[in-house]
Write a structure and sequence with these properties.
By secondary structure, the chain is mainly α. It is 54% helix and 0% strand. The longest helix has 16 residues.
Length: 240
């Protein structure tokens, strides 16, 4: 008896979306390519799903879906941007900073612009003296409100598939038992953490190594980054 060709079953777009959102982080990674490949089918379903998700959490699945939605300049994207003109993720600032432009840059995967804005916000949070000199002293980091560093970190985590952010850098440093000299190559930074703004020196996409962004100025050694990653607000996010 001859057997016919194997029967292939394609999961419906709505089923794939539900499965992706319900999956644990490891399962989501395995579904990621399917979701990206079927973006055209999924996009009309995304706005309704986004309304059901928690905008105060830091689930990168939401960020991915938003990036798929706004990737095309059509009525779906325009309606979403109009509805969430400051970005979907709910972030707050004790210093009264507007994180809307940063969120928009991350939504569009404009990571170089997002990194520039993050550095600017860190100077603003450090105080007027840091803004005037153009960089932050390590001693100016501890007084920064936890809620602002948490907001910056959540934005990076949500819109990078969980690959970028200060909390990601903390986890990597912990996995290396605090060995800074081993952290730099893991982040894809130059040995010794030498920081530069030359575009060719960094990878401004999700193809970058885990923890590659945001950048922290290391021209004066590791003290600034150590102060930042040691901040209680960020430490608490990793310990939670």
């Amino acid at each position: 008896m001859l057997s016919g060709p194997p029967v292939t079953t394609t999961v419906r777009a709505d089923q794939l979306l539900e499965r992706f959102l319900a999956a644990n982080p490891r399962q989501r990674r395995s579904l990621l390519s399917q979701v990206q490949q079927r973006a055209a089918e999924l996009r009309p379903l995304i706005p309704e799903q986004i309304d059901r998700l928690d905008a105060t959490a830091d689930d990168w699945a939401a960020g991915l879906l938003i990036q798929l939605l706004v990737a095309e300049d059509d009525s779906l994207s325009q309606a979403f941007r109009q509805r969430y003109s400051d970005g979907w993720l709910a972030v707050t600032s004790a210093a009264g900073l507007d994180y809307g432009p940063l969120q928009q840059a991350l939504m569009d995967q404009a990571f170089e612009e997002a990194d520039r804005l993050t550095s600017e916000h860190l100077r603003q949070l450090a105080g007027e003296a840091a803004v005037k000199r153009g960089y932050v002293y390590y001693s100016e980091v501890p007084p920064i409100a936890s809620v602002d560093l948490e907001s910056l970190d959540r934005l990076w985590v949500v819109y990078s598939q969980g690959r970028f952010g200060f909390s990601v850098q903390i986890r990597l440093l912990r996995s290396l038992n605090g060995r800074w000299e081993q952290l730099w190559p893991r982040l894809g930074w130059k040995q010794g953490g030498v920081w530069t703004r030359y575009p060719s020196a960094f990878t401004w996409s999700l193809e970058a190594p885990e923890g590659h962004l945001p950048l922290v100025n290391q021209l004066r050694g590791v003290r600034l980054m150590d102060a930042l990653l040691s901040h209680p607000g960020l430490q608490q996010r990793v310990s939670a």
